Amino acid sequence: MSNDATLSPLKQALLAIERLEARVRRAESAARAPLAIVGMGCRFPGGADSPAALWELLREGRDATRDVPRARWDVEAWYSDDPDAPGKMNVRRGGFLDDVASFDPAFFGVSPRAAAAMDPQHRLLLEVGWEALEDAALAPQALRGSSTGVFVGITSGEYGTLLLRHGGPAGFDGQCLMGTPLYSAAGRLSYTLGLHGPSMSVDTACSSSLTALHLACQSLRNGECRWALAAGVNLLMVPEMTTALCRTGALAPDGRCKTFDASADGFARGEGCGVLVLMRLEDALADGCRVRAIVCSSGVNHDGASSGFTVPNGRAQESLIRKVWQEGRVEPSEVDYVEAHGTGTELGDPVEMRALVGALGQGRPADRPLLVGSAKTNLGHCESAAGMAGVMKVVLALEHGEIPAHLHVERPSPHIPWDEIPVRVPRERTPWPRGDRRRVAAVSAFGLGGTNTHVLLAEAPSAAPAEVPSAAPRPWHLLCLSARSEAALIDQARRLRAHLAARPEQRLADVAYTTSVGRAHFARRAVVRAADARGAIAALDALIEGRADPALHVGRVADPLPRAAFLFQGLGAEHAGMGRALYEGAPVFRETLDRCGELLRPRLPHPLPRLLWGEEAAGGRIDARLAGPALLALEVALAETWRSFGVAPRAVAGHDVGELAAACVAGVIPLDEALARAADASGAPALPAGDRAPRTTLCVGPKDLEGSAHLLEVGPVGPGRDEWQLLCDRLAALHVEGCPIDWEAFARGAEGKRVGLPTYPFERRRCWVEDAVFREAPLENSAAVNGAVVNDTVASVAAVNGAAVNGAAVNGAAVNGAAVNGAASQAAELGVDSRSSSHDMPPLPAELSVVQVGVLASPGGEIERIMAEQLRTLSHVLGEQLGFLEQMAGVPMDSR
Fold first, then answer.
1. Among 113, 162, 546, 741, which has the highest number of CB atoms less than 10 A from its own CB?
2. E strand or H helix at 799, and its extent?
3. What's the CA gap between 389 and 395, in Å, rounded?
């Protein structure tokens, strides 16, 4: 490279300009980089609790709206057919989720009371966010500490109103304070998953979730995060907002969105939650992620000074749409379909249609009109989650090659000049297959406050041609299942069994890869060894029915975690053909054996593979003079293979040739020296006396290794036995007891891909307002406090470590030990190793280091008030610790 200092000033200036131009080009490229949607999770009306269920609902053309559930409010008490009746609503229907009171607090490490004080919208985000990551085959625990961003569209906090109504101001404490605000929605998800990227809740009314997606895209392109969760959530908890909307005439009396129809008279309110997992397309392809669709570009603007604060501005909408397709480098005629905002209002629908035609109608072939529809006709207007519903509909339509029917159009709106515009509303299912031309679609959302958002999507890249396998196909695969409880493990087995039975064409290598690499591994574990789907189903049946099966390993994380010891075999174990299956299917084994072969080349009459599997091994035996180096090379290759899987030995041992292998693996002697000794020895090679007992190596018999939970014999298996089966069974046995396994390394050479599989079976329980509100127990004056029951948590203050309590100070740490460590013992009994958790035990705060306990008697009741407050605070801390232990154990603790 030339030295810039030797160049003339003019040349230096030109070189600086070239570098600046290159930086600008890179920045522009990054700003327009395509992004990949790699995972989705959802809850929408009509039982659409997964993307697959949402697609079935859309494809079948179902209207998911229904009468207001009694669990929300008594619609008969609030209903009036008079839209102007004060405090009444003239609508009975909406798009409601089935159950928003239930949640799995133990799974997320939340105490039962904290869960009841948490807005169900936040709880939905936790569950659906987890499912979206699993859909992306990204183990949520693997993202802990990463710069993953969280962007949540959310507009209402009506659950806080319910809490206040139920318990009054006295019952609205710190748990409620942190469980209900909008800002807690994104923060709770980032906190629970341990994410360090940008985290924000976004409120732009009806465009909130699409705006959250836009911000997530910006963050990815700016390099702020490598992964991003974009989400939207909305629940209708109280009737007052509906009554207010009825007074404005915004809601359709029949509770249906009749978008683009002559009878359009307002929208139907709806609920839902949707979460997308996004990455830069380049990163997603490099990581082998399943790309579901591409985000080409997005944009946000405002209506400005329109004719009214809530009146849409068509020119602003058109300007935004133009800007987005220009930034996405897409021609208007390329856009096939638009998922419209389409609320079904007499004013809004024509304004939106004119904006779409103005921005996307130019140059469009007469035989290919712009298709425009809206999922609001199926689900209702999910408000701050509506954008997620629209994006997911487009992604699913791209995947399935079909645009679902747009409902409730009997007579097209007379306010739209249908005969003059290149637009058609698909009133029946419309084929949309992949072809020579890239399929492109857009999604619009317009907020009540004037914030408009538009996103441009495109189909995922065509699947790349299958790569030439780097190894022979493996005869066995390992499917990993885990859960926080035995019941959830069985439920997961049922789900996976049904999935395999319904998809016999799916490669088992892909299923195995996804279950091992793309899932978190909890305390209760099972591993299925199978060669094909039929074998996997048979082993899953055994797990479900509680039967033993040679292909099934079941266990739970041990305490302490198991460690392996390697016992290397000696001469006599070798035989012709040993190691061949592993050589063909395990890259690390092959690489290590080849390296040994190169080191032995000068000392052997033939290449090592020929000695093991060629003519020289005919008759089933290896030449006795060459058996030593051959056996040593195989054992070292096996040891390196185990190490690559994350299984490092706590101790090693061996005899004769195995003694050399143990010393080599322990680092006592280098590989070339060990091979040389094995090749030069006339009999069984031995270590010199001075090398026999190094601290890191146990060159002794196996009886001295009884302290290791797993003793792995490292050497050839018997003639005719399946090497892969034995290796898989040993690996499975280690995994179910908690030994950390590098599943990515194990999958090397198997050519597995990330695929969609059933998500975790949450064990939900009711968590509602009646469990969240704190009620002070009456305290008797002039009475000794021998104990206090607060929020279902007993803080035993009568006697701690045998100390009588009568006006004496009780050390908070001792209370912690008494009240919490008992639960820790319960966790230990469940086989949970708290040391392996990435969470830290929540400490007692300094102000609780001493709890004053004694006779409560004062003229003004001040001591009673102080004591009650201390007990409330102590209960909160113990509740958090209890939730932590529940998370580790995978089962609810006895809160008493």
1. 113
2. strand 799-800
3. 10
